[in-house]
Amino acid sequence: MTLAAAAPYGFLSPTGVEVSFLLVGLVTFAAALVTVTTKQLVHAALWLVVALGGLAVEYLLLTAEFIAWVQVLIYVGSVVVLLLFGLMLTKAPIGRSPDADSGNRWAALTVAVAAAATLVWVVVDAFRTQWIDLDAPQGTTAVTGAMLFQHWVLPFEALSVLLLAALVGAIVLSRKADAKADAKADAGTGGAESPADAAGPADKERQR
Amino acid sequence: MHLAYPAVLAVLLFCTGLYGVLARRNAILVLMSVELMLNAVNLNLVAFDVWLRDALHAGQALTLFTIAIAAAEIGIGLSIVLMVYRNRGTSDVDRLRDTAEATGPTGPAGPEDTAPDGAADATDPDATAAAQKAEATA
């Protein structure tokens, strides 16, 4: 397809959906940048909420509404809460932590900028004459349910088994190897109530 | 909508996550950056599925599966990080160098094996106490 064939669309006359996508995309990208550069660990998790919520809005603009609500439910609802719990349980400092970035920051920046430049060039060169037709919604709940339970039932069930395995694995990993259930409960509440000495009760329990 | 908008946004988010994975020191921040990279891939899958108008909607199905697998991954990853923190007293990936190969011309028994640990212990009393606890309980 040449540029002339794409004449009904226009580079210089963006539609409202495109402008919305661009603005929300800028917010999402800025939030992602703050997430990977901020010195305050809890703020990183909270900016991650903004980035993931912005992506949910992008899914809505791409007419994939079911995926958008799944994104809000699972990512914003549970993954970020898990991350905040992880930060709390590992006694992450609340204020600014000067050693949040490792020493190879400049090498990482070089790699990331080079990868971004290469990929942006390739992607723009490949798809600059392609347009998404958003007239008919492609991801309504009815469509998603039909395709998920007609064509993708077997992967869906396999995925439920995988989630069960991950649940059991997480429990097995996070319980202590030789402690009893009450010792685990003691260590858990002690760590949550006294963050200054979260690792203390666990080790004392193990020494007994 | 121009296809380049979601594709370029996905590229930028992916490279942001790549920078975070390479540059962050806390293991939980590394996990956050991995989530950013997974979300960039999800955006690509949804955009190309809507563009191609696939009859099976393979892109959106794969996006749902990716989201579920990412939830499982974050659960397992956080439990691993918690176990490392409980045993070592730190979740900084830079300090977990037990299986690192010794670099430099001094050979495998060179001072690089012990120097980072010694320096970390000398500068950080928390790390010293945690290391002592870990040794006492091992």
TrEMBL record, chain A:
Catalytic activity of the protein: a quinone + NADH + 5 H(+)(in) = a quinol + NAD(+) + 4 H(+)(out)
Segments crossing the lipid bilayer: 19-37, 44-62, 68-94, 106-124, 152-174
Region (Disordered): 183-208
EC number annotated for this UniProt entry: 7.1.1.-
Membrane-related topology note: Multi-pass membrane protein
Domain of life: Bacteria
Localization terms from the record: Cell membrane
InterPro entries: NADH_UbQ/plastoQ_OxRdtase_su6, Nuo/plastoQ_OxRdtase_6_NuoJ
Enzyme class name: translocase
Pfam annotation, one family: Oxidored_q3
Keywords tagged on the record: Cell membrane, Membrane, NAD, Quinone, Transmembrane, Transmembrane helix
Family, per entry: Belongs to the complex I subunit 6 family.
Cited function: NDH-1 shuttles electrons from NADH, via FMN and iron-sulfur (Fe-S) centers, to quinones in the respiratory chain. Couples the redox reaction to proton translocation (for every two electrons transferred, four hydrogen ions are translocated across the cytoplasmic membrane), and thus conserves the redox energy in a proton gradient.
Protein name (record): NADH-quinone oxidoreductase subunit J
Protein source organism: Streptomyces cavernicola
TrEMBL record, chain B:
Lineage: Bacteria, Bacillati, Actinomycetota, Actinomycetes, Kitasatosporales
Subunit structure: NDH-1 is composed of 14 different subunits. Subunits NuoA, H, J, K, L, M, N constitute the membrane sector of the complex.
Stretches the record annotates as Disordered: 95-138
Protein name as it appears in the record: NADH-quinone oxidoreductase subunit K
Pfam families in alphabetical order: Oxidored_q2
Biased composition (Low complexity): 109-138
Gene Ontology molecular function: any one: NADH dehydrogenase (quinone) (non-electrogenic) activity
Presence of keyword ATP-binding: no
Transmembrane segments annotated in the record for this chain: 61-85
Organism domain of life: Bacteria
Presence of keyword Translocase: yes
E.C. designation(s): 7.1.1.-
InterPro entries: NADH_UbQ_OxRdtase_chain4L/K, NUOK/Mnh_C1-like
Reactions catalysed according to its record: a quinone + NADH + 5 H(+)(in) = a quinol + NAD(+) + 4 H(+)(out)
Primary role: NDH-1 shuttles electrons from NADH, via FMN and iron-sulfur (Fe-S) centers, to quinones in the respiratory chain. The immediate electron acceptor for the enzyme in this species is believed to be a menaquinone. Couples the redox reaction to proton translocation (for every two electrons transferred, four hydrogen ions are translocated across the cytoplasmic membrane), and thus conserves the redox energy in a proton gradient.
Membrane-related topology note: Multi-pass membrane protein
